[in-house]
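note to self — DONT lose this again. spent like an hour looking for the file last time. sequence + predicted structure for the chain T wanted, 259 res
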Amino acid sequence: MDKQILKPGDRDYVGALASGLEVLQAFDAEHPRMTLSEVAARTDMDRAKARRFLLTLHALGFVKRAGRQFELTPRVLQLGYAYQASNQYRAVIQQYLEDITAELGESSSLAVLDGDDVVYVVRSAARHRLMAITLSVGTRLPAAYTSMGRVLLAQLPELELAAFLDRVCLEPFTASSVTDKGALRDAIDRVKNQGYAVVDQELDLGLRSVAVPVFSGSGELLGALNISTNAARVDMETLMNVYLPRLQAAAEKVRRSAR
């Protein structure tokens, strides 16, 4: 029963709740403030429906308005805090990631798979910036082009992986990006066999990263750990012989700590 996923139109599916959450998710870094018409367009709702949801979220304190503009309020953070607070192992992982950053001078993160993206849930950032966008807890990146994403895709059951490969849209972010689904499947299979993933400048020029899966002591998949660096500063030999073993050691520490 737990694995049964409702679909729109099912008797127990609450469409109003789904639409309200869709309105909340319409706001992002590129759209921090929007008019009613913009929200309606981004959610593919008619204006009357979008208006009702915005006004309800406003009444609940999740949205504020200034003239014709709507934006999220800090109360939305309560939803994220509940998720973080329910996963106590995150504090332990945060310390291990900070240790990696202090030792190697590189950013290190924990991400989970959400749909076709990875979502950063714990992060220790180095001082140097690696991407044009700022990476932080909550950032979403395409799973197909990240080392953490490929590690997590390699953990999927065969049917779920096949469904992902069937629907995913592959984009040439750089000249190194994999754009053939067969080649992506081969890359994921290699990750499954070797237990780690390396992605070299497929999402952003100069961005090179390595990732491993991380499990609890009971065998539950907690996510993927990575170290990201600049390709001009760290060669592949260092990534494989220094960074990967350090990452695997951190994953083992988490396994022993998280029960």
